[in-house]
Amino acid sequence: MLKNYFKIAIAVLKRRKFFTFISLFGISFTLTILMVATAFMDKVISPDYPDYKRERSLYVATMEFKNTKEGWLNRSDVSYYFFDHYVSTLKTVEKMAISTNAKASNAYVNNKKIVIKYKYTNADYWNVLEYKFLEGKPFGQQEINNAEKVAVISEETKTAYFGDAKTVVGKYISADNVNYRVIGVVGNVSETLYNFAGDMYLPYTVSKDNYKRPELMGGYNAVLLAKNKADVPKMQKEFNQMMKRVPIPKEFDRVYSSADSFFAGMTRRIAGDGTNNGLTVVVSILSVFVLLFLLLPTINLVNINITRILERSSEIGVRKAFGASSKTLVYQFMVENLILTFLGGCIGLLFSILAIYLINDANLISNMRLSMNFMVLFYSLVACICFGLISGVYPAWRMSKLNIVKALKAQ
Amino acid sequence: MFKHLFKLIWNKRKQNFLFLSEILVSFLVIFAVFSFLTFYYQNYSKPLGFEYKKVWSINYDNGLLTKNNDSLQLFYDNLYKSLKAMPQIEEVTYTGANYPYSNSTMSTGVNHQGKKFDRVNNYVVGADYKKVWNVSVIEGRWFLPEDVVTKNKHIIINETLKKQMFGKETAIGKLIGNYDDKEKMKVVGVVQDIKANGDFWPAGNAMFSRLDTGYLKNTSDILIKVRDGADATFESELYKFMANTMRNAVEIRHMDEMRDAKNEVTIMPMVIFIIIASFLIINVALGLFGVLWYNINKRKGEIGLRRAIGASGSAVSYQLVMEAMILATMSLIVGSFFAIQFPLLNVFNIPASVYIIAMLLSVLFIYLLVFACSLYPGKQASGIHPAVALHEE
C-alpha cells in the first residue's frame, strides 16, 4: 500500500514541475532556517566543551538584594566570600568551580595590540570543567596557596602572543604590566559559553581585588557539582535552605541567590529575577516566534496543495466511486504530503550543512563551531513531520469531502 | 464592473480565504521589516552630534586608589596634568561609565512644572568633555570652573529634552527638579543631540552634570583625544604608564572600533531578519503566482466565452489582475487595522511617523507584489483563443 502511495506521490510530483519546485523551495528553505536555529540552540543548551557535566551541575551567578518597601533593587555577580563561607559548607556539593567573569586587558607585542580576556579561577575549576590541555597542566591548590603568578592561556592567545612558537610552557606573558609564567595551553572555548570563555586563566589569589572581603556581592560565579544526577535536586534544596541563613544586608529586607540548571540560569539572566527564573517567559516567547515564522510557509503550502488536489479531482472521484472511504483518502494524502516534506527536508539538510559551514567559516561569534549532530537531526526530523502534518491536514480534509458526481463531471 | 468582480470572488470564497490570509500574514511580516528599516533610517539620517575619530577610552579598576576625597582629587589632578603633558594627547577628560558606545547606561528622572520625564540619560562629565568629543553648544554655554560651587547644581541638557520640556522657549536659567523633585537644578546650556548608542538609535533625553569631587571615587574612565602621531608604540607606553599609576587592571579602547562593534549589534540581527523575510516573500510570491496561474487555466471556459462575446484580450487580463488586486485590498484593510494599533497605542514609544511610513511602504509593496504575480497569468489569459478554449468543453 505504502509503496503504491509512494509511486503516486512521485508521479504527481513529476506532473507539474513548477508546483513541485514551489513546494520544495518553501519546505526546504523553512526547514533550513529551523535546522540552523536548532543547531545554534543545541550549541548553547547542550553540554559542550569544556562544560560536559551539566546533568550533575548547578550554576550560581547572581546575587540580588531587595528593599520591598522602597522598591530598591541591587543585582550583581556573587562574591568569593559567599562561596567560600556559605556554599562550601553544603554537604551535597562534591566540587565547586569558582571563577570571575572575563575581564578585558591589553597586551602589546611587536607594536600590535592584543585584547586578552582573563579570568581568575580556583583549583577545582580545572577538575569540574574538562578543558583540553594542548600542553602543560593546570595550576593546583599549591600554586593558589602560594599566589604564584602562573597562567593557563588559550590556543588563540598563544598564537597571537607567541606566534608560531611550538611550546610556550615556561615562557612569560605580560598582561596588565605583570609577567605571568605560562603553565598550560587549552583549546579555545566558544564565546556562547560566557561563563567559561576566556583567553587567560589565573589563580584567584593573584587577583588585585580583595577577595576575602566579607560581602555577598562581588565578581565571581560558580558551578556546583553533585556526586551524581540524583543528588542535584537535593543540592538545590540544600542551597535554598542555606540562603535562609544568609544575613540580610543593611537597608534591605530580602536577599536572593539561586542555584539553577544551565538553561534556567540562562533564562534567569535574560528574563528572570531573584524569585522567578524566567523559564516560562523565554520558552513561550521562543515558541510563539517559531509558530509565527512557520505560519506563512504553511499557509503557502496548504494553498498549493489545495490547488493540486483540485487538479486530481477525477482520480479522487474514481477512487470514491469504487468505495474508498474518506479515511483512506486522507491517509493517502497525508502520506504523500509527508513524502514531499521529507524530500524538502533532505534538500533543506544539504542547505543547512552549507549554511553552517558558511557561518563557521565566517566566525560570526568568536570560536563558535556549529555542528550537525544526532540531536539536531532528530529535532529537524520532528520539525519535518510536524510541518508535513500541519500543511497536509486541511487539504486532505477538503479532498475527502469532494462530491463524487461533481468530481467526475468536472472533466 | 466591481460588483461583478466581487461576485466572482464571493463564489470562490473558500479558495480565496487562504489567498487572503497569506497576503495578510505577508503584510504583517513586511510591516515589521519596514518599521525597523524606517526607524533605523530616520535615526541614521540625523547628525551624529560628536566626533569619535581619534578618541580613545581608558578604563581602569579604581579599587586600589585612596578613598580619601581630598587626596583623590590631588591624585586625579596630577594624572590629568601628566596625560595632558604627553605630546600625542590633545585633550583629556574624566567621565562617568556611560560615555558614547560604552554599552553602559545611567539614567535618571527630572521634573518640570509637575511633569516627570523618565529615562533621561545622565552623563557625568569632566570639564574638557566638550573638547574631546567636539560637541556643539546650541544655546547658553558649556561648564565653567565656577559651576562647581553654586547653590543649585548647574546642568546642561540636550536638544531633545529641551524641546520636550520647554518647546520653543529658552531653557537657559530655568530651574528643574531632580528625580524626586526635592532639589532644583539650573540649566546653563543646551547641546546638540549625541547619538551615543550608535548610528541607528536615537539620542534620547540627556542631561550633563559636572563631575565633582564626590563622584571621583566612582570614576573609572578617562577619555582622551589623540593627535595624528599616536600609534601602537605610543599606546603601549600610555598603557604602561596607566598600569603603573593605577597598579591595577587597565584597558585602552579606540572609539572607532567601539562604534563598529555597537553598529554591528544593530546591523547583524537586521540582516538575518531581512534574509529570512525576503525568503518568505519569495516563497509567497511563487505560491501566489502558481495559484493564480492555475486558477486561470481552470477558468479557460469562462475566459473563452468572454472573448467570444467580444471582450478584448486586455479587458480579460485587466479583469484578472483587478480580481487579485481586490483580494489584496481586502487583506490590506484587515492588516492595516492591526498595524494602525501600533501608532495609536504608542507601542515601544516609537514616533508614530515610523509606523505610518512603514505602513504605506508595506501597502505599496504588497500591491506591487500581487500585481507582479498576477501580470503574467493575466497576460496568458488574454492569449486564450476562444475557439480552442470552448472546443475543450
Tell me what the structure shows.
Chain A: Its main location: membrane. Chain A: Residues 288-404 form the ABC3 transporter permease C-terminal domain. Chain A: Residues 20-241 form the MacB-like periplasmic core domain. The complex is a heterodimer of chains A (411) and B (393). The relative contact order of chain A is 0.17. Chain A has 2 domains: 2-46 and 281-409, no CATH class; 63-257, no CATH class. Chain A is of the alpha+beta class and 411 residues long. In chain A, a hairpin with a 2-residue loop joins strand 9 and strand 10 (178-186). Helix content of chain A is 49%, strand content 18%. Chain B has 393 residues and is of the alpha+beta class. Chain B has 2 domains: 2-45 and 261-392, no CATH class; 62-248, no CATH class. Chain B contains 11 helices and 11 strands. In chain B, strand 3 and strand 4 form a beta hairpin. Chain B is elongated. The mean pLDDT of chain B is 85. Chain A binds chain B through residues 18-19, 21-22, 25-26, 29-30, 33, 103-106, 108, 111-113, 115, 176-177, 208-210, 293, 295-297, 299-304, 306-307, 310-311, 364, and chain B through 15, 18-19, 21-22, 25-26, 29, 61, 63-64, 231-233, 235-236, 239-240, 243-244, 247-252, 268, 276, 279-280, 282-284, 286-287, 290-291, 294-295, 298.
Considering the chains and any ligands shown, give keywords for the structure.
heterodimer; A: 411 residues; alpha+beta; seven-stranded mixed beta sheet; three-stranded antiparallel beta sheet; 13 helices; B: 393 residues; 2 domains; four-stranded antiparallel beta sheet; 11 strands; 54% helix; 17% strand
Brief sketch in words of this structure:
The complex is a heterodimer of chains A (411) and B (393). With 411 residues, chain A is α+β, with helices and mostly antiparallel strands.
Instruction: Give the proportion of residues in helices of chain B.
Output: 40-55%
Total DSSP helices of chain B: 11
Largest sheet of chain B: 7 strands, mixed
Strand content of chain A: 15-25%
Q: What amount of the residues of chain B lies in strands? A: 15-25%
Give the number of domains of chain B.
2
Tally of individual domains of chain A: 2
Oligomer: heterodimer
The H/E string of chain A reads HHEEEHEEEHEHEHEEEEHEHHHHHH
3D shape of chain A: elongated
Number of strands of chain B: 11
Q: Please, what is the average pLDDT of chain A? A: 86
Low-confidence segments of chain A: none
